[in-house]
Amino acid sequence: MTLEAESHIRAADVVLLILPTALAAHHVISLNDNFINLLDLYENRTRPETYKAMAEAIVEQVHQGRNTCVVAYGHPGVFVTPTHAVMRQLQEQGYSVRMLPGISAEACLIADLGVDPAEHGWQSFEATSFLFTQQSVAPTAALILWQVGLTGEVSLKRFVPGERGIDALITCLQQWYPADHRVCVYEAPISPLEQARKEWVALDELNTVQFKEYSTLYVPPVHRATLIDSRLEWLALNKSDLKGFEAVPAAPLSPWQNNN
Question: Which of 86, 126, 156, 207 has the most beta carbons within 10 angstroms of its beta carbon?
Protein backbone atom coordinates (compact mmCIF):
# COMPACT_ATOMS: atom_id res chain seq x y z
CA MET A 1 0.00 0.00 0.00
CA THR A 2 1.38 3.40 -0.99
CA LEU A 3 1.69 6.42 1.27
CA GLU A 4 -0.86 8.17 -0.93
CA ALA A 5 -3.36 5.36 -0.42
CA GLU A 6 -2.81 5.45 3.34
CA SER A 7 -3.40 9.21 3.37
CA HIS A 8 -6.79 8.77 1.67
CA ILE A 9 -7.76 6.03 4.13
CA ARG A 10 -6.90 8.25 7.10
CA ALA A 11 -8.83 11.21 5.66
CA ALA A 12 -11.99 9.25 4.83
CA ASP A 13 -15.23 9.55 6.81
CA VAL A 14 -15.83 5.85 6.19
CA VAL A 15 -13.75 3.02 4.73
CA LEU A 16 -15.42 0.09 2.98
CA LEU A 17 -13.36 -3.11 2.93
CA ILE A 18 -13.14 -5.81 0.28
CA LEU A 19 -10.23 -7.68 1.82
CA PRO A 20 -9.73 -11.47 2.08
CA THR A 21 -7.64 -11.63 5.26
CA ALA A 22 -7.94 -10.34 8.80
CA LEU A 23 -4.30 -9.21 8.64
CA ALA A 24 -4.97 -6.90 5.69
CA ALA A 25 -8.12 -5.58 7.30
CA HIS A 26 -6.26 -4.97 10.58
CA HIS A 27 -3.75 -2.71 8.86
CA VAL A 28 -6.48 -0.62 7.24
CA ILE A 29 -8.48 -0.41 10.46
CA SER A 30 -5.34 0.79 12.27
CA LEU A 31 -5.41 3.78 9.90
CA ASN A 32 -9.15 4.43 10.20
CA ASP A 33 -11.48 2.45 12.44
CA ASN A 34 -14.70 3.77 10.91
CA PHE A 35 -15.17 0.88 8.51
CA ILE A 36 -17.74 -1.41 6.88
CA ASN A 37 -16.80 -4.97 5.85
CA LEU A 38 -18.38 -5.58 2.45
CA LEU A 39 -17.40 -9.28 2.41
CA ASP A 40 -20.37 -9.90 4.69
CA LEU A 41 -22.56 -9.30 1.63
CA TYR A 42 -21.49 -12.61 0.05
CA GLU A 43 -23.79 -14.55 2.38
CA ASN A 44 -26.80 -16.13 0.59
CA ARG A 45 -26.13 -14.28 -2.69
CA THR A 46 -24.77 -15.19 -6.08
CA ARG A 47 -21.59 -13.39 -7.09
CA PRO A 48 -23.42 -10.87 -9.35
CA GLU A 49 -25.93 -10.18 -6.57
CA THR A 50 -23.07 -9.64 -4.13
CA TYR A 51 -21.28 -7.22 -6.47
CA LYS A 52 -24.50 -5.26 -6.96
CA ALA A 53 -25.06 -5.08 -3.19
CA MET A 54 -21.47 -3.90 -2.66
CA ALA A 55 -21.85 -1.17 -5.26
CA GLU A 56 -25.12 -0.02 -3.69
CA ALA A 57 -23.52 0.10 -0.23
CA ILE A 58 -20.66 2.27 -1.53
CA VAL A 59 -22.94 4.63 -3.43
CA GLU A 60 -25.18 5.00 -0.38
CA GLN A 61 -22.27 6.32 1.69
CA VAL A 62 -21.38 8.85 -1.02
CA HIS A 63 -25.00 9.99 -1.34
CA GLN A 64 -24.99 10.64 2.42
CA GLY A 65 -22.25 13.19 1.80
CA ARG A 66 -19.46 11.16 3.37
CA ASN A 67 -15.88 11.19 2.12
CA THR A 68 -15.80 7.53 1.14
CA CYS A 69 -12.79 5.26 0.58
CA VAL A 70 -13.02 1.68 -0.72
CA VAL A 71 -10.07 -0.64 -0.10
CA ALA A 72 -9.90 -3.79 -2.22
CA TYR A 73 -7.32 -6.55 -2.38
CA GLY A 74 -4.72 -6.43 -5.15
CA HIS A 75 -5.46 -3.82 -7.79
CA PRO A 76 -8.91 -2.25 -7.24
CA GLY A 77 -9.55 -2.25 -10.99
CA VAL A 78 -8.62 -5.88 -11.70
CA PHE A 79 -11.47 -8.37 -11.21
CA VAL A 80 -13.21 -6.11 -8.70
CA THR A 81 -16.56 -5.59 -10.40
CA PRO A 82 -18.14 -3.23 -7.81
CA THR A 83 -15.41 -0.58 -8.12
CA HIS A 84 -16.00 -0.11 -11.84
CA ALA A 85 -19.78 -0.06 -11.40
CA VAL A 86 -19.49 2.58 -8.68
CA MET A 87 -17.09 4.75 -10.67
CA ARG A 88 -19.37 4.78 -13.71
CA GLN A 89 -22.49 5.59 -11.68
CA LEU A 90 -20.95 8.31 -9.51
CA GLN A 91 -19.13 10.00 -12.37
CA GLU A 92 -22.38 10.13 -14.33
CA GLN A 93 -23.95 11.78 -11.27
CA GLY A 94 -21.22 14.41 -11.16
CA TYR A 95 -19.18 13.13 -8.22
CA SER A 96 -15.40 13.22 -8.19
CA VAL A 97 -14.07 9.65 -8.13
CA ARG A 98 -10.49 8.44 -8.32
CA MET A 99 -8.96 4.97 -8.39
CA LEU A 100 -5.43 4.45 -7.10
CA PRO A 101 -3.46 1.52 -8.55
CA GLY A 102 -2.47 -1.46 -6.44
CA ILE A 103 -0.35 -4.56 -6.96
CA SER A 104 -2.35 -7.08 -8.98
CA ALA A 105 -1.95 -10.86 -9.12
CA GLU A 106 -0.53 -10.33 -12.61
CA ALA A 107 2.22 -8.08 -11.23
CA CYS A 108 3.02 -10.71 -8.59
CA LEU A 109 3.08 -13.47 -11.23
CA ILE A 110 5.59 -11.55 -13.33
CA ALA A 111 7.88 -11.19 -10.31
CA ASP A 112 7.45 -14.69 -8.91
CA LEU A 113 7.82 -16.56 -12.21
CA GLY A 114 10.52 -14.26 -13.53
CA VAL A 115 8.77 -13.62 -16.84
CA ASP A 116 8.67 -10.46 -18.93
CA PRO A 117 5.64 -9.61 -21.12
CA ALA A 118 7.99 -7.84 -23.51
CA GLU A 119 9.89 -11.02 -24.38
CA HIS A 120 7.17 -13.02 -26.11
CA GLY A 121 3.96 -11.03 -25.89
CA TRP A 122 1.11 -11.37 -23.42
CA GLN A 123 -2.46 -12.68 -23.76
CA SER A 124 -4.93 -12.46 -20.91
CA PHE A 125 -8.48 -13.83 -20.54
CA GLU A 126 -10.93 -14.78 -17.83
CA ALA A 127 -10.89 -18.59 -17.94
CA THR A 128 -14.61 -19.34 -18.37
CA SER A 129 -15.07 -16.58 -20.94
CA PHE A 130 -12.05 -17.97 -22.80
CA LEU A 131 -13.58 -21.44 -22.78
CA PHE A 132 -17.04 -20.35 -23.88
CA THR A 133 -16.08 -17.97 -26.69
CA GLN A 134 -14.10 -18.01 -29.92
CA GLN A 135 -10.62 -16.67 -29.22
CA SER A 136 -7.52 -16.35 -31.35
CA VAL A 137 -4.53 -17.63 -29.40
CA ALA A 138 -0.90 -17.05 -30.40
CA PRO A 139 1.14 -19.97 -29.01
CA THR A 140 4.25 -17.83 -29.51
CA ALA A 141 3.10 -15.54 -26.67
CA ALA A 142 2.45 -16.20 -23.00
CA LEU A 143 -1.18 -16.91 -22.10
CA ILE A 144 -2.74 -15.92 -18.76
CA LEU A 145 -6.11 -17.39 -17.72
CA TRP A 146 -7.65 -15.68 -14.71
CA GLN A 147 -9.89 -17.44 -12.19
CA VAL A 148 -9.09 -20.86 -13.60
CA GLY A 149 -10.40 -22.24 -10.31
CA LEU A 150 -13.90 -21.21 -11.39
CA THR A 151 -13.73 -22.54 -14.96
CA GLY A 152 -17.17 -23.58 -16.16
CA GLU A 153 -18.89 -22.73 -12.86
CA VAL A 154 -22.14 -21.23 -14.16
CA SER A 155 -24.30 -21.17 -11.03
CA LEU A 156 -22.26 -18.17 -9.84
CA LYS A 157 -22.73 -19.43 -6.29
CA ARG A 158 -19.88 -21.90 -5.80
CA PHE A 159 -16.14 -21.22 -5.60
CA VAL A 160 -14.91 -24.35 -7.39
CA PRO A 161 -14.56 -25.30 -11.06
CA GLY A 162 -17.63 -26.57 -12.88
CA GLU A 163 -18.03 -30.35 -12.96
CA ARG A 164 -16.31 -30.69 -16.35
CA GLY A 165 -14.72 -27.28 -16.49
CA ILE A 166 -11.04 -28.23 -16.25
CA ASP A 167 -11.39 -31.18 -18.63
CA ALA A 168 -13.05 -28.91 -21.15
CA LEU A 169 -10.31 -26.30 -20.71
CA ILE A 170 -7.63 -28.94 -21.36
CA THR A 171 -9.40 -29.95 -24.57
CA CYS A 172 -9.69 -26.31 -25.62
CA LEU A 173 -6.02 -25.52 -24.97
CA GLN A 174 -4.86 -28.60 -26.88
CA GLN A 175 -5.94 -26.82 -30.05
CA TRP A 176 -2.71 -24.80 -29.69
CA TYR A 177 -0.52 -26.63 -27.16
CA PRO A 178 0.74 -30.24 -26.96
CA ALA A 179 -0.54 -32.45 -24.16
CA ASP A 180 2.86 -32.50 -22.43
CA HIS A 181 3.31 -28.70 -22.52
CA ARG A 182 4.17 -27.52 -19.02
CA VAL A 183 1.81 -24.95 -17.49
CA CYS A 184 1.82 -23.27 -14.10
CA VAL A 185 -1.02 -22.93 -11.60
CA TYR A 186 -0.15 -19.72 -9.83
CA GLU A 187 -1.51 -18.09 -6.69
CA ALA A 188 -0.12 -14.82 -5.39
CA PRO A 189 0.42 -14.69 -1.62
CA ILE A 190 -2.35 -12.76 0.08
CA SER A 191 -0.35 -12.02 3.23
CA PRO A 192 3.35 -11.52 4.05
CA LEU A 193 3.26 -14.85 5.90
CA GLU A 194 2.53 -16.85 2.74
CA GLN A 195 4.59 -18.00 -0.21
CA ALA A 196 3.44 -17.85 -3.82
CA ARG A 197 2.10 -21.09 -5.25
CA LYS A 198 3.92 -22.12 -8.45
CA GLU A 199 2.75 -25.61 -9.40
CA TRP A 200 4.00 -26.80 -12.80
CA VAL A 201 2.21 -29.69 -14.49
CA ALA A 202 1.76 -31.07 -17.97
CA LEU A 203 -1.32 -29.65 -19.68
CA ASP A 204 -3.06 -33.03 -19.81
CA GLU A 205 -2.55 -33.43 -16.04
CA LEU A 206 -4.18 -30.11 -15.16
CA ASN A 207 -7.29 -31.97 -13.95
CA THR A 208 -5.23 -33.53 -11.12
CA VAL A 209 -4.55 -30.16 -9.52
CA GLN A 210 -6.45 -28.61 -6.61
CA PHE A 211 -7.61 -25.08 -7.38
CA LYS A 212 -8.70 -22.07 -5.39
CA GLU A 213 -11.14 -19.52 -6.77
CA TYR A 214 -8.32 -17.05 -7.33
CA SER A 215 -5.90 -19.49 -9.03
CA THR A 216 -4.34 -18.20 -12.24
CA LEU A 217 -3.03 -20.35 -15.09
CA TYR A 218 0.19 -19.33 -16.83
CA VAL A 219 0.81 -21.01 -20.18
CA PRO A 220 4.29 -20.23 -21.55
CA PRO A 221 4.98 -19.92 -25.29
CA VAL A 222 5.34 -23.22 -27.09
CA HIS A 223 7.62 -22.00 -29.89
CA ARG A 224 9.31 -18.86 -31.14
CA ALA A 225 7.72 -16.18 -33.30
CA THR A 226 9.17 -15.73 -36.78
CA LEU A 227 9.86 -12.62 -38.79
CA ILE A 228 7.52 -11.96 -41.70
CA ASP A 229 9.35 -10.79 -44.81
CA SER A 230 6.30 -9.08 -46.30
CA ARG A 231 5.97 -6.84 -43.25
CA LEU A 232 9.61 -5.88 -43.43
CA GLU A 233 8.91 -4.85 -47.01
CA TRP A 234 6.29 -2.38 -45.74
CA LEU A 235 9.23 -0.54 -44.14
CA ALA A 236 11.58 -1.12 -47.06
CA LEU A 237 13.67 -3.38 -44.82
CA ASN A 238 15.10 -6.85 -45.03
CA LYS A 239 16.51 -9.13 -42.35
CA SER A 240 20.05 -7.90 -42.89
CA ASP A 241 18.92 -4.40 -41.87
CA LEU A 242 17.89 -5.51 -38.39
CA LYS A 243 21.46 -5.78 -37.09
CA GLY A 244 21.05 -8.59 -34.62
CA PHE A 245 17.33 -8.28 -34.03
CA GLU A 246 15.56 -11.63 -33.98
CA ALA A 247 12.34 -13.02 -32.64
CA VAL A 248 12.95 -14.01 -29.02
CA PRO A 249 12.68 -17.78 -28.55
CA ALA A 250 10.46 -19.28 -25.91
CA ALA A 251 12.69 -19.75 -22.90
CA PRO A 252 13.23 -23.35 -21.74
CA LEU A 253 11.85 -24.37 -18.38
CA SER A 254 14.16 -23.23 -15.61
CA PRO A 255 15.09 -25.32 -12.56
CA TRP A 256 12.75 -23.30 -10.34
CA GLN A 257 9.74 -24.25 -12.50
CA ASN A 258 8.77 -27.20 -10.36
CA ASN A 259 6.04 -27.99 -7.91
CA ASN A 260 6.19 -25.99 -4.68
Answer: 86
